[in-house]
């Protein structure tokens, strides 16, 4: 877009200034027109806070935040490291406590930032977020002790809303919901300082929204110590004892309905390795937009890799952050050969809290742009279109699920609202153009999964065409053979559900891509083979990107042996399932009469979100404001009702009644 801007500068200079009221004609506020003896001299407005000037060493712009977001100056950096041994799942002792929320009245607020709904919808963005000095995030006051932990999350992908000290070493934490919504908590990432070594601290996150979690299946939180990184070269590791995930007494009120859902708590205890260290706690290995930019910058500045990959701007997000698209293919071969290459589309991070998707993506790109014979063969066989981060805004602000439209982008692939959902609109458009040009063999969108272990895929059954029967299952079955201790074919599902019509997977399949998948990696670990009962590391996640490439070569092997073996195996598997579940025998061709969906469990199994409509900023503004304009009488009535509802739950709840604008609790 900078190119366009310079172009328009040139164009403007070509017109005599008198013929054009430049100030009025300009549709951008980024250009300023100076006049020198009647000549218009356009220049970029200062300070240049919209786009950094690209340079060969860094073709990337600074990061844009919604203007209300406060961002601290320091940038967070973590080393990449893998533990020498696989880290085992947590084994419950049966004595884990389930502390109920205490609240701010009985506790001591040590950290508090503006809620996600401070402004009702996204308005403007700015590089570096909110202008002006950063506010003090802690309440201070007489209770403030030197021995308190110091929390911070106002950095990329951070999302701690509030920390309340409820015991000497006991902290109750509230996560910031996705921006302009009051839901979707699950991801967490924040900094802790001022700790004492040898002390056991308890952390309890009290506003988790999912009814179940991998924390019930042995998953542990992650800890990063800057001093351990500095002194021993160690990075993120699994920590924690007394881990429990359970329903608490708080409820989450839906914005527009009377239905209330229970909130859940995640509690754990842990010690820190050093006194007065800087540590981080997270749900999964963070992978920020800056991290992606550094990675892309390495790929495009290294002559060894830049020969096969072109980096382009797919579009800008709502906040104006760049959504990158990479084209990877070998420049060798004649025109006819190159134009006959089939295409593969790979995307990731439509859901910003699913950082595991980005690690798989990094592994995929590193392998694909590497020097191995397999990588070269892949580049000579295919044209890869890769969108490594579909939702940079969500990643920047620390969302779990949504874009700054306050909506799940992966329910909006059918959208006509290009300006509200630019990232998915342009992705679909890019795929359409690609399909007009060449065959697209496979589309895959990388995700994280918060309730099941292992890695698996969701696909779409091609049941309309008998010649294609079961073929959509070949690639996932091959994956499970190549990554036997990580990838579970049993967890794969091949369904076209009504509720998922707006997902990338189903929209691309309806466009005509038969092999259309999401690849879901657990946040936890494996239950398979040698790796049974251990967490995935960064290296494990990256290896999935490699296995994906490996499987592509198997899938497209001109020798059909592997494919026909897989088809035979799939047929046998299905016949057995029919026997077990429906009590029916089938001959080898009898499957046609059985709807495959009948024998797959009907639970969606995935991280479902209902499609929740128009972007928040397009909702009827009077509707959006309604809850702020309640009459005093209504407010009193509501209060009475709430007090009745919480009677007996202790005084601490009442304080929260006043916080009408974040009426998450009552
Ligand atoms: Zn997802």
Automatic annotation (TrEMBL):
Q: What cofactor is needed?
A: Zn(2+)
Where in the cell is the protein located?
Cytoplasm, Cytoskeleton, Cilium basal body; Cytoplasm, Cytoskeleton, Microtubule organizing center, Centrosome, Centriole; Cytoplasm, Cytosol
Principal localisation = cytoplasm
- InterPro entries this protein is in? Cytosolic_carboxypeptidase (IPR050821), Pepdidase_M14_N (IPR040626), Peptidase_M14 (IPR000834)
State the residue spans of region: Disordered: 599-643
Q: Which BP terms does GO give this entry?
A: proteolysis
- Reactions accelerated catalytically: (L-glutamyl)(n+1)-gamma-L-glutamyl-L-glutamyl-[protein] + H2O = (L-glutamyl)(n)-gamma-L-glutamyl-L-glutamyl-[protein] + L-glutamate
Q: Does the keyword Protease apply?
A: yes
Gene Ontology cellular component terms for the protein in this record: centriole; cytosol
> Which Gene3D superfamilies does the entry link to?
2.60.40.3120, Zn peptidases
- List, as start-end ranges, the regions of compositional bias called Basic residues: 624-643
Active site, per annotation:
520 (proton donor/acceptor)
In which domain of life is the source organism classified? Eukaryota
One protein family per Pfam: Pepdidase_M14_N
UniProt GO molecular function: metallocarboxypeptidase activity; zinc ion binding
Name the residue ranges with Low complexity bias. Answer: 599-613
Query: So what family is this one in?
Result: Belongs to the peptidase M14 family.
Know the name of this protein? Cytosolic carboxypeptidase 2
**Organism this protein belongs to:** Esox lucius
Q: What gene is it encoded by?
A: AGBL2
